[in-house]
Amino acid sequence: MQSVIYNSEEERIAVEYFSRLSDMVGAVGIGVCFTLLQFPEPRKAAALSSLLFFCWAVSLGRNYNIMIKRAKSASKPSTWMFLKYAWFGWVALVFMLSIAVGAVKPEHFV
Predict the structure, then answer these.
(1) 110 lies in some domain
(2) How far, CA to CA in Å, does 52 sit from each of 2, 57, 64, 109?
(3) Which among 11, 19, 34, 93 counts the fewest CB atoms within 10 Å?
């Protein structure tokens, strides 16, 4: 990421923070999804896990909110940047919700 040109130092920090956060949240979420598929009835557990996963991911974004409050208004990273760099976490959440609604079943991986 060193070769990328950013509009501001705040944007660089935000991109690096969310890239690492997305990797960690996504990896944990995907692992939880495959663990849920081991359960005899994964839908209920996936619904609860989705709620907990979402709350956990949002709580990790507190540092981002602190950073945004301290940044100059002209150099604040956009919400689009947050969505763009948190893609792995979104994939994990969608996978988990797909298990919760029954769209993804253990039979798909046999």
Answers:
(1) no
(2) 34, 9, 20, 24
(3) 34
* pLDDT-based confidence at residue 71 (cuts at 50, 70, 90): low
List the one residue out of 16, 17, 19, 11 whose CA is nearest residue 74. 11
For residues 92 and 29, is the Cβ–Cβ distance under 8 A?
yes
pLDDT of residue 73: 67
Q: What pTM value is reported for the model? A: 0.74
Give pLDDT tens digits for 26-55. Answer: 899 999 999 999 998 999 999 999 999 988
Q: Residue 69 sits in which domain range?
A: 9-104
Query: Considering its fold, how many domains does the chain have in total?
Result: 1
